[in-house]
Amino acid sequence: MKRIKAIYPGSFDPPTNGHLDLIERGSKIFDELVVAILRNPEKDPLFSVADRRKMLEAMTTGFDNVSVDTFTGLTVDYALRVEATTILRGIRAISDYEYELQMALMNRKLQPGLETVFMMPAEKYSYLSSRLVREIAQLGGSIDCLVPELVGQKLREKIDIAHKFENGEQPAGITHPEAKSKFRKKKVKDG
Ligand code: PNS
Fold first, then answer.
1. Which residue among 15, 54, 154, 158 is buried most deeply as judged by most CB within 10 Å?
2. Cβ proximity of 156 and 164 under 8 Å
3. In terms of C-beta density within 10 A (0-12 exposed, 13-18 middle, 19 or more buried), how is residue 142 classed?
4. What's the pLDDT band for 43 if we cut at 50, 70, 90?
């Protein structure tokens, strides 16, 4: 019988309950699902790839058919490398559609054999994005219902470090420009 392996590529900076909702839905329809974190040297993420990987691994321990990996380069090349036939992406609202359609069609142009499958997260996560989570956390709002407990904890640690800089303290192992740039907004759609 044909087994369907899918990848769920993204930035996951940080992973949210919306991502987890999609992973759960994906794990039910695909035989195998790889959550694939893009290692993008041009971006300055809040969390390192290693941190995001650890968080996603902890979030997905309950799913037998879900694994976590990282990749560089084109998503379609990564999909071929791991012998996946499907790319899973989430669509929360119409505003996501244009960007997602463009990406899916470009990926199809690059690799006609790969299919993109869109899934919708639960309605309660339709307004949730990593960018908003970062912003709310930075400004002291509650992120309790937006991210898993472990992610909330890690976010609070980051914010604590940033506040220490603001107060003139120097937390070990981190440089000031690094801390200052951590909460920058992204310009494109942010998962
Ligand atoms: O979570 P995000 O940031 O919305 O994920 C975007 C991602 C990582 C899926 C997209 O930027 C991507 O596929 N990047 C890899 C490079 C690539 O394949 N670019 C061509 C896309 S058509």
1. 15
2. no
3. exposed
4. confident
Report the b/e string of 35-59 with b at 16+ CB within 10 A. Answer: bbbbeeeeeebbbebebbbebbeeb
Q: Which residue has the higher pLDDT, 95 or 56?
A: 56
* 9 ligand 1 Cβ < 6 A: yes
Query: Residues 65-108: pLDDT tens digits?
Result: 999 999 999 999 999 999 999 999 999 999 899 999 999 999 99
* Distance (Å) from CA 108 to ligand 1 centroid: 13
- For 189, the 3-state DSSP assignment is coil
Atom of ligand 1 nearest to the CA of 106: 22
Cβ-based neighbour number of residue 65 at 10 Å: 16
Catalytic residues: 19, 43, 92, 130
**CB of 121 closer than 6 A to ligand 1?**
no
Burial class of 72 by CB neighbour count within 10 A (0 to 12, 13 to 18, 19+): exposed
DSSP SS3 for 55: helix
Predicted TM-score (pTM) of the model is: 0.89
